[in-house]
UniProtKB/TrEMBL annotation:
<dbReference type="InterPro" id="IPR050188">
    <property type="entry name" value="RluA_PseudoU_synthase"/>
</dbReference>
<feature type="active site">
    <location>
        <position position="236"/>
    </location>
</feature>
<dbReference type="GO" id="GO:0000455">
    <property type="term" value="P:enzyme-directed rRNA pseudouridine synthesis"/>
</dbReference>
<dbReference type="Pfam" id="PF01479">
    <property type="entry name" value="S4"/>
</dbReference>
<comment type="function">
    <text>Responsible for synthesis of pseudouridine from uracil.</text>
</comment>
<keyword id="KW-0694">RNA-binding</keyword>
<dbReference type="GO" id="GO:0003723">
    <property type="term" value="F:RNA binding"/>
</dbReference>
<dbReference type="InterPro" id="IPR002942">
    <property type="entry name" value="S4_RNA-bd"/>
</dbReference>
<comment type="similarity">
    <text>Belongs to the pseudouridine synthase RluA family.</text>
</comment>
<dbReference type="InterPro" id="IPR036986">
    <property type="entry name" value="S4_RNA-bd_sf"/>
</dbReference>
<dbReference type="GO" id="GO:0009982">
    <property type="term" value="F:pseudouridine synthase activity"/>
</dbReference>
<dbReference type="InterPro" id="IPR006224">
    <property type="entry name" value="PsdUridine_synth_RluA-like_CS"/>
</dbReference>
<dbReference type="Pfam" id="PF00849">
    <property type="entry name" value="PseudoU_synth_2"/>
</dbReference>
<dbReference type="InterPro" id="IPR006145">
    <property type="entry name" value="PsdUridine_synth_RsuA/RluA"/>
</dbReference>
<keyword id="KW-0413">Isomerase</keyword>
<dbReference type="InterPro" id="IPR006225">
    <property type="entry name" value="PsdUridine_synth_RluC/D"/>
</dbReference>
<protein>
    <recommendedName>
        <fullName>Pseudouridine synthase</fullName>
        <ecNumber>5.4.99.-</ecNumber>
    </recommendedName>
</protein>
Amino acid sequence: MQWLTAFTSSAKPFLISPSLLSIFPTPKPTFPSSSSLSASRFPITLRLLSSFSAPSLSHASDDAFAGVLSNFSGVRLEETVPIDSVKVRLDSWISSRVSGISRARVQSSIRLGLVRVNGQVVDKVSYNVKAGDEINCEISELRPLKAEAEDIPLDIVYEDDSVLVVNKPPHMVVHPAPGNPTGTLVNGILHHCSLPIVEYSNQEFLSDDDDELKNTSGDHATSEASVRPGIVHRLDKGTSGLLVVAKDEHSHAHLSDQFKLHTIQRVYISLTSGVPSQLSGRIEVPIGRDSNNRIRMAAIPGASNSKQARHAASRYKVIEILAGGGSALVEWRLETGRTHQIRAHAKYLGIPLLGDEVYGGTKSMALSLLRPRTPSDIHGQLLKLVSRFERPCLHALALGFKHPYTGKIIHFTCQPPPDFAKILSQLRKISTVKPSA
C-alpha cells in the first residue's frame, strides 16, 4: 500500500521501528481446533449540610461497607446546596458529592425518579441546582443488561475454537452499557458465534477500570467475564484496530493472565498535534481520573499507585514528522493498560492526538499548528482536512499473545482504516520527514 512506503521491508514482526509496518500482509496462522462476590445491600445515608467536602466513600475500611460502595446501590445523599455554589447541572452536582460514582449511574437514578429537589421529584438530568436547594437522592440498583445477537458485519482477522481476533472499526463500542445497549462488538460476536441472548450484571462499565478486564470482583472489577464471548480487553469507541476475544473460560482466564502480567504485545500508531520535543522516549507517569472532567483521565506526576492514580508506562517513537512539524506519525508500545493511557500520555507530552477533542486535540489547535507551517494557498485544503477529524487518530496496529491451548506465540497486524489513511496521506502531501535513526 502506498501510504506505508515510509517503512522498510522485513518479514519479522515486532521489529524496532521504522520497519514495524512492513509486516503487511502477515499470513494468518492456523492451529488445530481445540465467581464474583456479591455486594452487600443496605441503605447508606450521607448527610452533608452546607459543605463541599464530602467524605470519600472509597476510603471505607469495613468490608461490608466497601461491598456496597463497589456498586453504590442504595446509597442516599441528603444535602443542601451551599450559598456560594455556582450554577451547575443536577447530575454533575450529585456526581461531585459521591466519590467514585459514574455520571451515567447518577443520570439513571435521576431518570428513575429517585432524586428530589426541595421535596419535588426532578427527572431531568440537566436541571440546574441553585444555592439553598435541598437535594435528596438515592442511587438506583444495578440492573441486568441483555446482550442480544445482532447481524453486524465483522472483520475477523483470525478464528479458531478458543479465540477470535477482530479488527474493530472506529465508532463501534466494544460491549453493551447504559446508552449503548445495541450495535456493539459483543452483539455482533454473539451472532457470529451463534450464541443466545446473554444477561449479565452492569458493574459500572465506565469506571476506572483498566483496559485489561478483570474476572474477579473488587474496586476495579467489571462483569464482562460473565459474557460469552469473553471480552478480555477493550478499545475506546473511537479507536480502531485489533482486539482478541476469548471463546471459552480457559481461554479467557489464560488471556486475562497475560494482560495482567503485561506479556501481551500491543503496538499502536497515532497522528498527533505537533511533534514531541524528544523524538522517542518512555513515559512513566501515573494515570487517574481528571478531577476537572470525570470523563477524562489525566497523567498525574508524582502520584502513588492508588485508587486515585495508577502506575502507567508507555514507549513512543516518532516515525514521520508531517506537515513541517504540525503533526507526526507516532508509534506507541504499552507496558501497562490503563484507561485512555495513550491519549492521556500524549496530552502530557503536549502532543494530543488529532481529533481527540476530549484531550485537547481540537480542530482549532490543529489549524494553529498547521497554518504557520504551510503556504497560504493551501489553507482552504487544511480546513477541509481538519473538518474530517471525527475521532482520535489512534489505531491498534499489532497484537501478539500466547495461544491459550497451543502455547505458541502468534502475531497479527492490520492496516489503519480509510479515514486514518486519508488524513495521513494528505499530511504527507504537505511534507514528510523521517527522523534519522
